[in-house]
Each structure stands twice: as structure tokens, then as C-alpha cells.
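User: My collaborator sent over this chain with a note saying "see what the structure looks like." That's all I know about it. Can you take a look?
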Amino acid sequence: METVLLILDVQNGVIDRLENTEPYLQRLASTVTAARKHNIKVMHVVTSFRPGYPEKHPNNSSLTAVAARGAYLDGDDSVQVHPAIAPAAREVVLTKRRVSAFFSTELNMLLRCASAEAIVVAGLITSGAVLSTVRQAMDLDYRITILEDCCMDRDEEVHRILMQKVFAHKAQIVSAEKWVKGLAKES
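Assistant: Without extra context I'll predict from the sequence alone. Here is the result:
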């Protein structure tokens, strides 16, 4: 069974809007390094939009706010994977236009082509991309591990509730350190 480390929205424009990200980025960077060392495939997912925001539907208040700021346009620095976890050669960087990494993207196909049956999820924001992607991954029958301390939300209480009360029933919730130690034992 193949496992893929899926990193959601750890891009410059998202990191720039959060506080106290240095410890988070250091922890995530060491986790990504360990995954690569143990031949775990890493896939990065970023949110980006076309000029003029043709993806913006009038009923989507989140995207309306993004468009009003002129944020996250294709090619802009804000949509680049943060340099702390810069993609290595041949690592997939997938662009999404909505919250879930699965919605209207090739993610499911890429995971299936990689023979992945299990995904390990890290990223931003717990109540956004992480929640939407994990819920859809559950419906697609992936085995899911969530790296609790490699996910982050603007609201720590929301993060805690999602990890302890929502995700814990359907996914394995572990620290990055525990997951990395498990990789070392499997080698």
C-alpha cells in the first residue's frame, strides 16, 4: 500500500495572512524532509485563480472576498509553495480553484496512478482545505492520517474540535514527530 503526503495551501499568500508560522513551518519542513528520506511521495496543493476570477460564482462569498483583494492569481508569488517546503524535482504541485483539493482537480487520478491507498494530510486551514479535503477523501475510501501539528487554523479552538471530535472518528490523528518515528520503524 502506497502512502502520499498531501500538503494543502502552504503557499506564500496563506502563510502571510497567519501569525506565528515559523514553528509550524519548521515542523512541516522537517516532516517533509523525513517523508522524502523514506521515499514517501509528496504532493503539494495550492489555491489559485485565473485573471478576472472566472471561477467566482455570485453565491460564493469567500471567493468574492478574495477577488476584492485581488489575491491568489495564477503566476503570482502568493500562490507559490512556501520556500520552507519547496517542491523537490518531480513532486506534483496541483492547483485547485475551490476549498477541497479533490473538487474539479486531478488529485484522485494522481493518487490512484501513484497506487496510493493512504494519504497523510498536512496544511492550511484546518476548517477550510483540510476539512473539505479530508471529508472527500473519506468518501473516496482513502486511509487517512492527519498530522495534527502540521495543520493550522486561525481559531485554535476550531482546530482542536475538528481534530478531537470530527476527524478522530474516521482518521488517524497523530503528531508529526510520531508519524516520522513510525516511518523510521518501517524502514
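A starting point for your reply to your collaborator: The beta strands are 2-8, 41-47, 92-96, 116-124, 143-152, 172-174.
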